[in-house]
Amino acid sequence: TQLLEQSPQFLSIQEGENLTVYCNSSSVFSSLQWYRQEPGEGPVLLVTVVTGGEVKKLKRLTFQFGDARKDSSLHITAAQPGDTGLYLCAGYDRGSTLGRLYFGRGTQLTVWP
Amino acid sequence: EPEVTQTPSHQVTQMGQEVILRCVPISNHLYFYWYRQILGQKVEFLVSFYNNEISEKSEIFDDQFSVERPDGSNFTLKIRSTKLEDSAMYFCASSGTGLANSPLHFGNGTRLTVT
Which residue of B has its CA nearest to A48? Predict the structure, then answer.
């Protein structure tokens, strides 16, 4: 079983603050995906990172894949209440078939106005 | 935007009963999956399905589980004899290609409660 550990588990901040959440593993992943999940809904893909050291930006969100492809981070600049949600990282390991993602437990982010 | 739809949104059943969870994947997608999420735990892979057969299944997907694409649009997950520990959110997902890292599109899930 591939383990993805996410930290922190919970994060509560004020609007306008910056934050970083982490996704770590002792295993190498061929790629990592970040999802956001709202209550009562399924996960929605935000980004996929594939190459070690890769950085991708999605408006105020910056995603980075570690050089060794064992970890990833999500940085949000100037958080807004609309960013509130559960952020999940998920990875395909090198032996995975398509669709067999291993998920972390998630970081529950709350942004207060 | 096309989406994956799941019905029912909530299913309550008694232990030992059979349940069928239904999904309509995005219409031009060819690869289908079921995942589940027990309350407070990680989203876990159950099974992937392509070309009318199972591609891969996890250790969770035992003989009590089966999947079917009965009519070219629906994709179902059947649990033959439910147990208390089957209580979870069950998510269906689909993807359009067999390429590595192809994004998965998830439905909003069926909450199964076994009493």
Answer: B101
